[in-house]
Specification:
The protein is an alpha/beta fold and 142 residues long. The protein has helices spanning 10-23, 40-50, 85-90, and strands at 2-7, 29-33, 65-68, 74-78, 103-107, 121-127, 133-139. 22% of the residues lie in helices and 27% in strands. 37% of the residues are buried. The structure holds adenosine-5'-triphosphate (ATP) and magnesium ion (MG).
Amino acid sequence: MERVVITEGPEETISLGMEIADELRDGDVVALVGEWGAGKTTLVQGIARGLFVKDVVSSASFILARTYRGKIPLHHLDAYRIESIEEVFEAGLDRYLPPDEGVTVVEWADKIYELIPKGSLWITLEFLDGDRRRITLRRAPR
Ligand SMILES: Nc1ncnc2c1ncn2[C@@H]1O[C@H](COP(=O)(O)OP(=O)(O)OP(=O)(O)O)[C@@H](O)[C@H]1O
Ligand SMILES: [Mg+2]
């Protein structure tokens, strides 16, 4: 089961994020994969908007994880700086994979592939020309 969406600019990626948010439930994990600047954080901003998060969602890179309050909690993780699976446990981030309450969105999820729960929603963002991005959504088999 795969869905491919081409977005023409950041606003459309935000809209897609809002649409995704409508489908999310407590305990869900969304795994984002894509190069620098592909639009991962932009997509998280859309998910946050869809979950009625009031705070501004910024890049999580320097703090590994941040929880935002919305309709349900949104846990935003960034695995870019993580060099080993052990670090995830040391930092206590495994409690978000999956979370008891709220949803977790992980940037650079491929770096901690082994820790992403089965059945998570995997989303890949790729550059096309200009501001266009190819965004592929797929539910990993349970
Ligand atoms: N179609 C698009 N979708 C998303 N962002 C876009 C699009 N077109 C242009 N952009 C721009 O690309 C940039 C994407 O940055 P963003 O921080 O979301 O990427 P990222 O994948 O999180 O990067 P990083 O790997 O540094 O965390 C933003 O400046 C955004 O405005
Ligand atoms: Mg980012």
